[in-house]
Design a protein that fits this description.
The protein has about 300 residues and is of the alpha+beta class. Helices cover about 10% and strands about 20% of the residues. β6 and β7 form a beta hairpin.
Length: about 300
């Protein structure tokens, strides 16, 4: 009996080993890395109550500030290695928040301007991988002019079947918004905080995405901020005041549009300089005998979950 299960054990071990170092970070906005805050490494945060959730511990502003007009399209670049922005197995949602620079991100200051979770069987991370690390959002057109902290949140759910298994990849940037209106965006939440994620057993961070297959998913955090312009149509940008965070199909376009022309998607090093002291060197991508998205691995994982049920 044990011998007959040995190939399954070896296969699963190979899968887990291949996932161990496939981490990611946001490294630039519209090709500019100067406004992205320094992060210590690209490891995930798993404790939802950790103060690192705010900006991965990056309390100090970046060396420069990027300026964008309200309503402008931004391309966030995520990076793990020259071959991929994140391992495709790290399926989950992506959300983007803003807080006024004056607040320093303290207290109930964060409002969500973009999100995407699970839509027709496809995760936001699936689209990110297909786009080679480029993720498009649109700033609310009536956003009040001023200085903001932009916070990106990629959540990997491949190990979220247990408490503290969900992996958050958080990055922050310092931006200036010009033009716009006088909207006071809401709701605002504290991160970390119970209005963002209630705890390690919250349904958004403790969920088995493999078996039984899920068709809906609640993205962490509040609903999209009501300051988002009614004309916004991006798949992950807030576009009305009645958004329900339990409905992740958002009824918007997909994120597979052409990336910013300033980007060269054939070379990740355009946005990453291994000699730049502000960014840690990427972890080497270990060769794996089993692809985590292959039918064999999926079937093996499902059998293991059945056996442990």
């Amino acid at each position: 009996m044990w011998i007959s299960q040995l190939p399954l054990v070896l296969l699963l071990s190979a899968v887990m080993m291949s996932l161990a170092s496939c981490h990611t970070n946001m490294i630039s906005i519209n090709g500019n890395r100067g406004c992205v805050r320094h992060f210590p490494n690209n490891s995930p945060i798993t404790d939802v109550n950790s103060s690192l959730m705010k900006c991965y511990g990056a309390a100090e502003p970046a060396s420069s500030r990027c300026s964008f007009a309200a309503g402008e399209t931004l391309w966030l670049k995520y990076y793990h290695s020259d071959s991929q922005p994140v391992d495709p197995s790290h399926k989950g949602p992506i959300a983007v928040y803003l807080a006024s620079a004056e607040s320093k991100g303290d207290g109930a200051s964060w409002f969500k301007i973009a999100e995407k979770g699970l839509t027709n069987g496809q995760w936001a991370v699936d689209e990110l991988v297909a786009n080679r690390g480029d993720w498009k959002i649109t700033l609310p057109s009536n956003l009040r002019a001023g200085n903001y902290i932009l916070r990106s949140e990629l959540l990997a759910l491949h190990s979220a079947g247990q408490e503290f298994g969900a992996q958050f990849y958080v990055g922050c940037a310092d931006i200036t918004v010009t033009g716009g209106g006088d909207a006071d965006c809401s709701p605002k939440v504290e991160i970390p905080g119970t209005q963002w994620v209630s705890g390690p057993s919250d349904e958004s961070v403790k969920v088995n995405i493999y078996w039984p297959p899920i068709t809906s998913y609640k993205i962490p955090g509040p609903q999209l901020a009501s300051c988002a312009a009614a004309s916004d149509t991006d798949n992950n940008s807030g576009n009305n005041n009645n958004n329900n965070n339990n409905n992740n199909n958002n009824n918007n376009n997909n994120n597979n549009n052409a990336p910013d022309p300033d980007y060269d998607n054939n070379d990740y090093n355009d946005d990453y300089d291994n000699n730049d002291a502000n960014y840690p060197a990427p972890e080497p991508t270990a060769a794996s005998p089993a692809k985590s998205d292959s039918p064999q691995c999926k079937a093996a994982l499902q059998e293991l979950l059945k056996a442990c049920a």
